[in-house]
Structures are given as structure tokens and as C-alpha cells.
Write a structure and sequence with these properties.
FAD/NAD(P)-binding domain, 2 domains, 6 helices, 27% strand
Length: 313
């Protein structure tokens, strides 16, 4: 019987493992199919994590030291895929690929989310080379330069507003003539002089060379007219797919409370509606989707696990 089963090996999962083992739990296993680290391992440069300011280091370099530190205190790593997490009596049953089952007193699920792709030509080719899904992470690289934002919801317009304080001009491309964002958000954006709304339009193509993105081609969906815009930053905000399948039961129903977007509803202690079950990182409600925030979530969840187990005893 595990004291705690951690599902997911990104910053939230690793930090949860560090705090749980260093806090005295002897039997903690993290289930992660590949090498731990999460989405940040795909980044070419880390600039906004406190205390880490080495421009020669990649996201992979950044996470290497996390793994060493977390495993030092006794965290175990199983390279196995978790199919389902279920509450069985007072404990949890972790069902792995192939049918193997592991029992645990508590569970912390931090399987994250994946930004949706818009599907235009060149999106994958230039992802990380000009195409981004994180204004907070990458906006500063385009200081005093023009950038393009794709999307029409609150996130897209909030990120466009954020970028407008860094970049010279922000061009927001939306396929409809009306935005899904709240009126307050839209009003704030429309009053910002360097934000330009391009409606009824889609990104037809992102183009560039080996050095990265050079510009975009924007197509009006009503007239099919294509305009070319030369800039080196393209931010895509068309939603996230939450990796929440492990929280579905055999009837495809969620075992804990979720919101309409498939994010787990938690309180400030990362507690779900199921006693002993916690979530952390990008899969929870109102997640900032930043490494530093995910790490904070993981620490909070682990401290709550320790308290929960002590109370049960």
C-alpha cells in the first residue's frame, strides 16, 4: 500500500513528490510514462523562473536538477501509464495499463493540459521558433516588436492586453465578427491603441526559415483576401485540452467535481470533492499555467496529503 500515488511527472508532480518524501512519507511513487519534466522540457530558454537566469540552459537542463533532488529523498518513479484512479472504500485503486492495480492511501493527480493547435500551415514547424502558447513565458522576447494573437475568448484578449504592454503592436486575429470574451475584457482591449482587431479572419500560414518565424498570412473568411504581415511572434490561444481521463470511472463519469471545461474543481488546498484526492498544476481550475505556480500547487497538495494521513491514523 502506497502512502501516496502521484500521477504525472511535470513540475507539479515532482514537487509533490519532493515535499511528500521530505515530509516523512516513506512509500511515495510517481507514475509517469516518459522522463519527468513536463511541457517545460520543450522550451529552448527559461527566463521567468526565480533564481534561474542562465540563457545557455534549455527547459530540459532546467528540469534535470529537479529530478535529481526529488529522487534523492526517496521518491520512486514508475514508467507506467495510469488508466484510472478510483476511490475504493477508504483507499484508492490505481489501475495501470495492462490491468495491474496498485493501492494507495492518497492520490495527487497532476496530468496537466495541452494547448489546442489552431491547425494552420507552419504551426508545428515554427512552434517554439516564433509560434507560442504562452505570452507570460515568451512575450518579453518580442519587446517593442509587433506580434499576432490568434483567438477570440477571454484568454486570447487578456493575453493580447498583456502583450500590448511589452510589444509595439498586437494584431488579434479572430474567425468571427464577434468575440466570446466578456464585455469588460473586450472593452479594455478596444481602448488600447496598439491592439488591432482583425475579425472574420484566420491564419492561413506561418512562414519563415531556419532562423524561425518571419511572418504570417491572414485570410478573410468572407472575401478570401489574403494579407501578409511580417512579424516574428505568433501567439495561439484557442483553448486547452485537459488531460483528465484518469479521473473517469468505468461508466465514463468523473469521480470528482469538474467545471464545464473539464478542469478539476479544487479549493486553495488543492482538495477535490473526494477526501484524500488532490490535483495540482494545469488541470485545476484557474491555473496560471506557469512552472512556478505548478510547483507551488504540488507543494500544497503534498503538505495536505501528510496532514490527511496523520488525521486518518
Amino acid at each position: 500500500m502506497l502512502d501516496c500515488a502521484i500521477v504525472g511527472g511535470g513540475p507539479a508532480g515532482l514537487t509533490a513528490g519532493l515535499y511528500a518524501t521530505r515530509g516523512g512519507l516513506k512509500n511515495v511513487t510517481m507514475f509517469e510514462m516518459g522522463m519527468p519534466g513536463g511541457q517545460i522540457t520543450q522550451s529552448s530558454e527559461i527566463e521567468n523562473y526565480p533564481g534561474f537566469f542562465d540563457h545557455t540552459k534549455t527547459g530540459m537542463d532546467f528540469m534535470d536538477t529537479w529530478q535529481e533532488q526529488c529522487f534523492h529523498f526517496g521518491l520512486k518513479h514508475e514508467m507506467k501509464k495510469v488508466e484510472r484512479v478510483a476511490k475504493t472504500g477508504e483507499h484508492f485503486t490505481i489501475t495501470l495499463e495492462g490491468g495491474e492495480q496498485v493501492e494507495a492511501k492518497t492520490a495527487i493527480v497532476c496530468t496537466g493540459s495541452v494547448p489546442k493547435r489552431a491547425g494552420f500551415k507552419g504551426e508545428d514547424e515554427f512552434f517554439g521558433k516564433g509560434v507560442s502558447t504562452c505570452a507570460t513565458c515568451d512575450g518579453f522576447f518580442y519587446k517593442d516588436k509587433p506580434v499576432t494573437v490568434v483567438g477570440g475568448g477571454d484568454t486570447a484578449l487578456e493575453e493580447a492586453f498583456y502583450l500590448s504592454n511589452i510589444c509595439s503592436d498586437v494584431y488579434v486575429v479572430h474567425r468571427r465578427d464577434e468575440f466570446r470574451a466578456t464585455p469588460q475584457t473586450l472593452d479594455r482591449v478596444m481602448r488600447k491603441e496598439n491592439i488591432h482587431l482583425i475579425t472574420d479572419s484566420v491564419i492561413e500560414e506561418a512562414f519563415g526559415d531556419t532562423m524561425g518565424l518571419a511572418g504570417v498570412k491572414i485570410r478573410n473568411v468572407k472575401t478570401n483576401e489574403i494579407i501578409q504581415m511580417d512579424n516574428t511572434g505568433l501567439f495561439v490561444f484557442v483553448g486547452h485540452d485537459v488531460n483528465n481521463s484518469v479521473l473517469r470511472d468505468e461508466n465514463d463519469k468523473f469521480i470528482c467535481e469538474m467545471n464545464d471545461w473539464g478542469q478539476v474543481i479544487v479549493d486553495l488546498s488543492m482538495k477535490t470533492s473526494i477526501p484524500g484526492l488532490y490535483t495540482a498544476g494545469d488541470m485545476r481550475i484557474e491555473a496560471p499555467k506557469q512552472v512556478v505556480s505548478a510547483a507551488g500547487d504540488g507543494s500544497v497538495a503534498a503538505l495536505q496529503v501528510i496532514s490527511y494521513i496523520q488525521e486518518q491514523q
